[in-house]
Amino acid sequence: MESLNYHLGLAKAVSFEPNTIYCGDCQDVLQRFPTESVDLIYADPPFFSNRRFEVLWGDGYELRSFEDRWKGGIQNYVAWMSPKLRECHRVLKETGSLYLHLDHHASHYIKIELDKIFGEGKFQNEIVWKRNIGSHSDTKQGATHFGRVHDVILYYSKGDKPTWHEQHEPYSQDYIDGFYKYTEKESGRRYRLGDLTGPGGKAKGNPHYEFLGVTRYWRYSKENMERLYKEGRIVQTRPGGVPAYKRYLDEMQGVPLSDVWDNVKPITKTKEDLGYPTQKPEKLLERIISTSSNPTDVVLDPFCGCGTALAVAQKLGRRWVGIDVSPTACKLMAKRLRSLRAKVGDPIGLPRSVPQLRELQPFEFQNWVFEKLHGRVNPRKTGDFGIDGWVELDVPVQVKQSSDVGRNVVDNFETAIQRAGKDRGVIVAFSFGSGAYEEAARAKNEMKLEIRLKTVEEILNES
Fold first, then answer.
1. Residues 454-460: what's their mean pLDDT?
2. Looking at residues 142-159, what average pLDDT do you find?
3. Measured between alpha carbons, how far is 414 from 422 in angstroms, rounded to an integer?
4. CB of 406 closer than 8 Å to CB of 435
């Protein structure tokens, strides 16, 4: 396999260009990034959950299957994650933060690893995201565990003074009814009464004087108290009563965000849904990016998937960098960001040679073929009768990620073509044996079936 350095065109550590997508393993790609060059990292790696997904993306023509299955158990998963997390730590600025999204299978194991990497005192929060807003959970009849309805997001800071902008949630109706009991007749604004006396009294240096017939140590100077009274911000509910300050509900920011996020809905069956099985809602990323970055800061997602973190960063006026090992994912991200009017070039590191294409996962290789041929993938994984997709006017195509494809492959494809009611088809492979060409010639002469044998090299030369 050609080296990643050549693949990426990066011979040494260089200043990367923000708003760029890199195709490759994030550990290898990050090794080429300068130290302390990123302001915020949101990482949503494959979960240690032993699940398999096969899913149609976007327009229905891109089939992606992937596994987050780890042979050898949790220690293999930790060993796989550790060097990637060390690179994330290295590229973070001193004011930067890492948010690592995990599920219950691995969060406690990875937290121990992060404690080693970031050091003492850098763990800030274990955020609980209740991903199922309703009552749905994974409990079934006979289960011996409570319903699992949340993910964990581990928040670490690189230094002691990370970028931080406190976020707030609206008050609950119960809180409003219990505390903002008064309504101003003139404006209809709700308010509560706040204490005006000076905490600590004389010992704290608060001024002492008479106001509205009441002598106390006050929070403000007499001049400021008179001004607030004229503005209607101070009320005395009864003669001789201690004056109080009006705190209007519409002037309050709300409740500071806690580490339990139970009001961010999943994206299922919403306009955001791209068909990606582990896609996260934009609101989740809005909270993280708004809290721990400034406008024009660089946000990195080393496991981009469908690019939600990048899309939200773009909308919030941040710069971004995305990395994903999947060429299909990288192309989807670029398309998504261009729809937001982001200036995005082609992902760096896409496979462009025969050796690189040989190393692709089968579904990635198949996607590459149909993209180059301007065709579409067959969504059926069973009962497809050897037809992987179609080009032109529904011409069947079979894709073989192998060399020296022989007579038997062509012979079987003849049957598939006839069953589909077609008189021509295409087989794509790295190379074909003489028997394959002989069988294709026989099918044309005797059966009037036109089967074209197309090599990967031919496709590369045409593109």
1. 96
2. 92
3. 10
4. yes
Report the distance separating Cα 279 and Cα 58, nearest Å: 13
Range 13-166+257-338 has CATH code 3.40.120.10: no
Q: Where are the domains of the chain?
A: 13-166+257-338, 169-251, 354-462
Decide: helix, strand or coil at residue 417.
helix
The CA distance from 313 to 316, in Å, is: 5
* Alpha carbon distance 137, 142 (integer Å): 14
Please check whether residue 55 is in contact with residue 276, taking contact to mean a CB–CB distance below 8 angstroms. yes
**Which residues are 209's β-sheet partners?**
216
**22: nearest Cα among 333, 365, 311:** 333
Q: Does pLDDT of 416 surpass 50?
A: yes
Closest to 302 (Cα-Cα) out of 31, 96, 8, 11 = 31
Q: What's the rounded Cα separation, in Å, for the pair 135 and 262?
A: 12
Picking from 156, 342, 172, 366, the residue whose alpha carbon sits closest to that of residue 262 is: 172
CA angle 364, 369, 374 (to 5 degrees): 125
pTM reported for the whole predicted model: 0.82
Q: Domain 354-462 classified CATH 3.40.1350?
A: yes
Q: Tokens 């934009």 appear where?
A: 282
Nearest residue to 28 via CA among 46, 47, 44, 13: 13
Phi-psi domain of 374 (left: phi exceeds 0; alpha: psi -120 through 50; beta: other): left
Name, in order, each residue with C-beta under 8 angstroms of 142's C-beta and a sequence gap of 6 or more: none
Residue written as token pair 């109706």: 173
